Please model this.
Amino acid sequence: MISGNPAVFISYSEAAKDTVARPFREFINSRGLYGILVGDEPLPDMGAPDPKGKVDYYLNKSTMFVALATPDSKLENGEIQTRQNILLEISSALERPHLKDRVLVFRADGVRLPSNINPVYQALDPDDVSTIFPIFEKQATAWQVLRPLASEEAPVEPSSPESEPPPRDSDSAPTGSVQAAGSLVELSGLVAGEEKENAGAIAARAHLAASTALASLRSSEPLGVHELNGLYLERENVLPSSAELQHLFRTVIANVGAANAPGWFWVKDASSDEVRTRVLVAAMGESDSGAAREAAKLLSHDPVGLSPGQLRGVLRAALKAGESSHGKACLRLLKKQGSRADLRVLASELDAHDDTESVGSARLTIQSREGPQAALRALLTSPAMLDTEIEENLLRSAKQAPRTVVSEALESPAAPVRKLGLQLLDKSSRIKKADVVKLIEDDDDESVRVLAARIAIKRRWRLSDGQFARATEKVPLFFDQNKLGVEFVALKSIEELERGLDWYGAKTYWIYEALARKSPTVRARLSKDLDNDFADLKEAGRQKYEEIIREAVEADLRKATGVDITKNQSQEIEKKVSSSLDKYLDNWSSLSAFFLKRFQIAALSVLADDPGPKDVRFGRRFLGDGNHDIASLAIKILRERGEDSDVQSLVSLASSSWREVRCDAASAALELAREPRSVAFELLDAPNADVVRIALQGLRGAGLDREQIEKIWPLLRNDQMAIRDAATDHIIREGDRQQLQVLLEIYPRDQYYYSVMARVDRALYAPSWVRRSAQSLLDG
Model:
């Protein structure tokens, strides 16, 4: 990022940080803006704000405000809300004179914003955040926060200097220092008004020389990403001095997690160990905290790992410096690669460090790897420290956890710890039905109750209908209640299920699916039921309720008269039965469409698991259904029994449907196609990164011929970052070294994206451990 560029405050939910907020920030950073996520590390040239007033500090520094209102909370009435901090930050931005006319809100479908805020908003798809990039660009350009891309990123054509070549010592090549001095001489001519054809190259080279000198005198900051990319265009003509090379290297390291900083070209002749040493030195002693932090992150993903001495050296340097973001990164490194011996050696430094939360997390993570019993006991007093890594470590050693300690975990006030206790008992096969029943009946957290029910059903322990209803009465968001419901009722006998099967009964579509899986008779009638929209089942249900009503009416009449029913009374009874039945069926009519869909899903679920040749017609019939689950099951049937003639319908669905359906349809189309290559080319036109990735997977292994390159090349300039990344990764995987070098030469001749250049540069010139570590960083 470049010092002095406009800052954009991004309001987000912590739950959507990695999936929505960070990709959005990476995009606006690639456009030369500062993307500010409060809670992340402070930006290098924004100063060190008061931790208690970060929001106010950053709002005052910002020139534009963007809110990402994701669906984070579902209320009992079904209303979906975004996180409260987003609403407060929108209000705060609207109260600031310099921001109130530069507030841009992106709202996910279904999210309700309070009427007292009532901002103008744009649509947000949390599954594909890149769809908001063009909208942001357009609005930011209109507010003059962002310059138009064409003028801002116009590539510089490499050319040879007009002036005399730099002096040489004998026949040797010019040194970097001589070249730097020469560029400054040529720059003086430009400043004086001379016109030079290669002015951009001269200025870029002179800038490297000046910024390197300035860094040693008064500034510790690396180059900006724009400057680095400008130099990269001239890379074949730039011979850095050792000091300039270090300045370039620290810039690349400082931006290694941002995906838009190329520069490994300049260290291509260094060995893998030499590069690792450079990164290690940066993590231990780099004066720029951002570069030191990113170096530590790069090392934390290194599959080789550091020696104990190196790890302790990095930690001591970071903890001594006291810089919070660098310290956090190094403590994450300790979490991943440290041991209890490291904790003992570094005890005094860790005890003195201000970030007690990160220190505690590192200690507990290492304990969970090497001393799970102690870690579990520690969690009982510090339940907030539990995270995914600690949980996985403890579950791997579940049998070592004492039953007494696990029992205490089941009584913990923290729901995540209670769930961990349940999983430990289950994994170690020490769980009892009484354990899960107690939690189902007494626990006040729905996720704990659902987990208990899942474990009981997996172990084929029969729960009562009331216990299952209690376990799933307030299910967590995105929980598949229907799948668990089918598994629950499937534990009953066929006779019990047959008695409970009823079109007009609550959730009896679970019983229908369970019966179809257990009873050959019901399995055999699935096709007929789908063909006639379950007419037989509806009629059986109608007759059942007609008899129930008739019995009730007759019983009331006998009670009232005390005598047997006469012929005249029989006619009266039939009228009452008919009237009551009509009312009953009318009450159900509003739910008929919903019930039909649920029964169709039940039938198709069974067919899709093992479709016969005749079942393919249901795949074709339901492929375009407006219900997500039905369309997915139709694709599953076609995948097993479809033909090449079904491919075009699947391709169309891949471009226009829900995310999961798009991916399933694209994969099925490639599997069924007689000419999968042409289908893959067609899928490349889909405006969706997931589909494009699947299409590119279909082209793997064939190498990059001319036709492939012509089809994939436009994707490198696609508006969606995820599509550009997928196309770049495919070219890197399939292309040879020469093809990648040619790409670096010709790609910048038109509008281009830094991230494409950076990815190819890293693939060509970075050591393999750097490539793997950097990719892990970019993947989050």
DSSP finds 42 helices and seven strands in the chain. The CA atoms of residues 16 and 70 lie 7 Å apart. The radius of gyration is 33 Å.
